[in-house]
Amino acid sequence: MVKPLRLTYRPELLGAVGVGTPFGEEIGLNAVRVVLTVSAGDPWQHTVQAVYPSLDVGAGGQFPALDDFVGAYCNRTRTDGNLSPVEAMAHFSTHARLTEVDALANDVRAVLELDDEALAACLVALDCNYDAAEDNSTDRSWLGWVLRSLERDAVALAPVPSAVVGEAGWVRDPRPMPGADPVVAVKRFVVNAASVDGRASRAEFWWARFLWGLVCVVLLGLVGAVPDEIRTPVLIGFLAWIAVTAIPNITLQVRRLHDTGRSGWSMLVQLAPVVGPFLLLVWNVQDSERSGARFDRPERKRG
After folding, report:
1. pTM for the whole thing?
2. Quick check: helix, strand or coil at residue 148?
3. With contact defined as beta carbons under 8 Å apart, do 100 and 89 qualify?
4. Which of 184, 247, 248, 299 has a CB 3.0–4.6 Å from the CB of 193, allowing a cystine?
């Protein structure tokens, strides 16, 4: 593609001027995009680093998510120390929300439907200063790779659809399920009883813990209420319940910590007197963090 020209800024009465091809000679620019840096300690003091000719003929309004992405990651030359394509996608994937991933993916799909000439013109209009040829690639190949990366991110970020949980609910899935109801929470508690991979949403965790605690209260109540001759069997039943659910409770805690972006080993913080259990409680009430997707390990299909 033709890279947007990097220009030297010089203030004039009627605006900015730039020198270089494809202009060939110094000309005035009616519209420019300016790269600024903020002076340390003074947010109102800016330094002009570079000026680009604004060739936007509506592409920014037509593809706003792609315009934002290009502006953040592809609007500076390599000599400025900007991120490589892989680093840029990794940074975007770490910080973007699902809605932002979907919006950018939709824009990229739309741009990929253009022919090669229109696609290149669109990137120029968006002031995209990344030249795919420098990486032995093409604009279309680069955008195709971006789209595939976004689609993987969307899968990792998407809540578990009801179809995955199924009518029976006995299907393993490493992704968290926001808003899980008590029935689903119990099913996932059982299905993932021995799994430390994946994540457990806040709703799934607290419903499972609440119902587990409720069973404990009922069994303890029975121990104190039943006649002496059957108290021992009831007590044995209570102890058996604690033993059988010990590992599932540990793995549930590990998956909840994964969902907040933390290692399962973080649960050892509860061993610290006073502060430890309180800190673990705070983590358990936190919402999902997208960085927790790194703990997912999808089930491999057999056959």
Report:
1. 0.50
2. helix
3. no
4. 248
